[in-house]
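Subject: Interface between my chains keeps coming out wrong

I've been trying for a while to get a sensible model of this assembly. When I model each chain on its own everything looks fine, but I need the whole thing in one frame so I can look at the contacts. Pasting all components below, labels as-is. Any help appreciated, I'm running out of ideas.
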Amino acid sequence: MTEHPTELLLQIADGATPPQEARAHLTTCQRCRQTLEALAPLDLGYVWDGVAAELDAPRPSLLERLLVAVGVRPGLARFTATTPSLRLAWLGANLLVLLLVALPLTSRPEASWPSAVLLVAPLLAAAAVAFAYGPAVDPAYEAVAATPLSPVAALLIRLAAVLVANTVLAGAVDLLVDDRGPTVGWLLPMTAAALLAVLVASRWTPMVGAATGMGAWLLVLAGWQASHQPVTWLTDPSTQAAYAAVAATLLVLLIKRMAQQGWSLNGPGDAA
Amino acid sequence: MMGAAGGAWEAAGMALDRVTGAAADDALVRAVAGGDRSALELLYRRHAPWLAGRLAARTSSRDLAEEALQDTFLAVWRSARSYHGTGEVPAWVWGIARRRLASLARRQRPGILSLEAAAEPPDSAATPEEAALGQDASTRIRLAISHLPAEQQAAITAVVYDGKSIQAAARAAAVPEGTLKSRLHRARLHLRKELGP
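Reply #2:
Try treating it as a single job with all components included. I did that and got this:
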């Protein structure tokens, strides 16, 4: 078709399906497209821009889609899914550390050492705080800092996500590699170390928080070594009760701090 | 405005012109299924104008119609693999567009879809040749245009027959673009009334 289907354009703009040869003409004829864009009751260029923008938009990660599917708000889901310490590289490094510690320990005949997971899980959870949030590690930090989400709330949300991931990892290593049988003795010290790290992070920086959490657990281990207690001391009920008491105290302090500070974080960027 | 479609399909433009529209539609949908974005743009050029007319006639909300049109082509992009028809692309895309509009209208503002739109037979695009005009129809349209008020007639002539852009037509008539657009709009309402359904 070389002639422009003039009257037909009016009908098309009213919603009539063009015949086959006219469709072929519309594919290539700039003039007829321009006429149709002028006649169209909708802004065809604007709509195409919208289609193109959607096609260009980054596809949400599997984790983000899962979070949205279970009812998490889309913005919060993206914020959680982009946690630096949830990246595969970080989780892979955690797994590697757990395995590297666990494998040599499995060959020790006598139970003179605590399980690898108990040794390492609290350290990893505290370290994760450093990589959960903050200008040093998060490429989206500036964008997040400008949102209504307070930094402490941000840190807590990400910490919760990281703790879940670490618990799954540690649990898997516990079940598969550690031959001492499945135990969740590491769960409370891990939680306590992470809470200490967050509390300190909310006062200073995530890095200082992480170092404090890790240091505290190393001190506990050093104290156990110096006391010549049997290895079961680290996981026996009274010690577990002490971990729980410490975790509960830290949680109360954290809530109190949030109530006082209005969920603000005295990080390097916004120190008073 | 739309950018130029790149890729092999742009080069094949003339070849597409020679093959029948139906075969080209099928080939385009297959290319879209293979992830060819320029093929989606060509499908948009062929089908968005009449889809826009139909969607706009079925809702009083322009935003809703535009959203439905956008969703339709996103759905075409995502579900092109599921199209196994031959030469039924218009009916297929209209089916998607109709469902998108209905679901958006239900979700956003219940009742915005007019009763006559909802009651219309769902497969009214089943024959792509629906709008094929005989000589009679062209004559009737030209006659109807000659009955329009002079300024509306001038607007239609400039845009449809002379192929001018809105900007150029507005310049030629020495009126703002908005005025020319509203003349075009009123002209089309007149024509619709005179020519009937």
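Reply #3:
Confirming on my end. Chain A is about 70% helix and 0% strand.
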